[in-house]
Predict the structure.
Amino acid sequence: MTNKWRSSEVFAGAPNAGARALWKSMGYCDGDFAERPVIGIANSWNTLVPGHFNLNQVAEQVKKGIHRAGGVAAEFGVIASCDGVCEGHRGMHFILPQREVIADSVELVVEAHHLDAIVLLASCDKIVPGMLMAAARLDIPAIMITGGPMLGGVEFDGRKTDETSLHEALGMLTAGRISEEEFRSLENLCAPTCGSCSFFGTANTMCCLAEVLGMTLPGSALAPAVHAERLRLACATGERICEMAREGLTARKILNAPSIVNGVRATLAMSGSTNAVMHLAAIAAEAEAGVDVMELFSRLGPETPQIVRVNPASKWNTEDFWMAGGIPRMLKNMLPIIEKDALTCTGRTVEENVKAFRFPFPKNDEVMKTLESPFSKRGGIAVLRGNLAPDTGVTKPGAIDPTLHVFTGEARVFDSEDDANAAILAGKIHKGDVVVIRYEGPKGGPGMREMYRAMKYLYGMGLNKCTALVTDGRFSGTNNGCFVGHVSPEAAEGGPIAIVRDGDRITIDVIEGKLHLHVDADEIRERFESWTKPAPKVTRGHLALYSKLASSAAKGAIVSAE
C-alpha cells in the first residue's frame, strides 16, 4: 500500500492548505486528506430519466461502502437525458452527442481534482458508454454501478409491456384495432416503476456489457431498480473501488482487447441493441485496445450462437433474464468461446468470477440456452456491406422474423425521419416497400437520431413482416422487423444512400451480410454527378460542432482531435 495518492498533489503539505480549507468548509476533516484515497462518484441522477431516478439512493450506498473501506467519497453530477422522452422530435438530435460530453465532463472533473479513483453511476443509453469511455481515457481505478431495470408492465399483445408498447398501440389505435380507453389504460400501466426501460434495448444492453467487460461486480447488470439487491451491490461497489485503488487496478487493465472481444461475443449471444456496435467501437478507441470492432462483429457473428432471447425478441423481459441467471450464467455457458482469462474489477478473471457465482434462481431455458442448443447458430447482430453500404450497415437478425432474413423491395425515399413517420401514419407505405430514411447520420442529422417510431408505426400498422427500413440513422434496441441502420458512408458524406430514388429495388440479406442497390454502376456514377452536398442543417451550438467533428458510425461516431 502507498500513501502517495494522486490527490496528495492537491491536499498534502502546507502549500495545499487552501485546498484543504475549501474542503473543510463542506465538513471534510483532517483525516480525510493525504492518507486515504479520494474516490469520485460520477452520479448522473436526475428527475428527467426514470433509469436514473434511483441513483441518489444508489450513491448513498456507494458512499457507505467507501467509508467502510477507508476511502473519502466526493460526489459530482453528470448530465443525462432520456431517449424515450426525446424520441421522434428535434430533441433526439442532441442524444448521441451527449455521450461525448459525458465522457469529457467526467475526464475534466477527475483530472482537475486529481481524484484517485472513480465510481460511475449510470443506467441509460448514452450515459453508460460515455462513462466507460471516460474510464478508458483516464486509466485510473474505475468501477460502474448501474441503477437497474424497470419492472415490466401490464400484459398487452401477448407480453409484458413497456413505454415503447404505446407506439405499437398507437398504430393499432390508428388502424382501429384497439379503443381509446384501452390506449389510455396502457399509458398508466406500461411503466410501473423507475429503472431503465424493461425491454432489452440499448440501456440494458450497455448495462449488461459493462458487466461483461468486467467493469461492474458480477450480477450487477440486471438486478431490478426497486430490488434491495441493487443497494447491496452499490455498497459492495463502494468497498471494492477502495481496494482497486490500493491495488493499482486501473481501467485499461480491464478495458482492453480481450474484454472488447467478450463484449462483441456477448452482444451477438444475447442479440443486444444495434447501438452497442457503435458504443463498443467508441470504448475500444478510447481504450486504445487495438481492435477493429466492425471486423470482430463480421467475423464472430456467424460462429457465435444466440443463446439469450429477451423482449423485443420474445415475451420475456429483463427481470426474467436476471432471474434466469443474468450475465454470470450467460458467461458461464459461453466459457468455451470467450476470453475467459480477461481480468475484471474484482481482481479475478471472468472464469473465476462465474465459477464462484451463486445463482439464487433456477434456470429458465426459454430465456437462456446453451451453446449446444441455442436459439440460433449465428449471432443476433449482423454487419452488412454492399454497394449501398460500402463501409458497413448494422442489423439485428435476432429481432427479425426468419422469413425476412432475405428481403427485396422497392424504395420509398425520405430525407428525414419526420417525413417518413408522417407517410407511414398516413397509410402511404405498402407491402413490399423499403422505407429509406437518409440525412440522419452523425453529421447529416446531425446527431444520428433513432428511427424508432418509424419501426413502431410499421408494427402497429401491421406492416412489420412485409416491409423493411434502411437508414444512415440508428435504431432503438426495442425495434423489431426488417431494418438496417448505421449505413456508412452516410448520405451527408456522399454515401450511395444519398442517390437512391423511389422505385429502386433494394435487397437486404442478413445471412450473407449484404445490402445491395439494384442499380448498375454507370447509373450510380451519373446520379452522383448531379448530387450536391447539402448545407449543414445546424450552424451554431453544440450540434454544429458535433456535425463537424463526428466520425462515421462505422468508427463509433466518436469526436476525435485527430
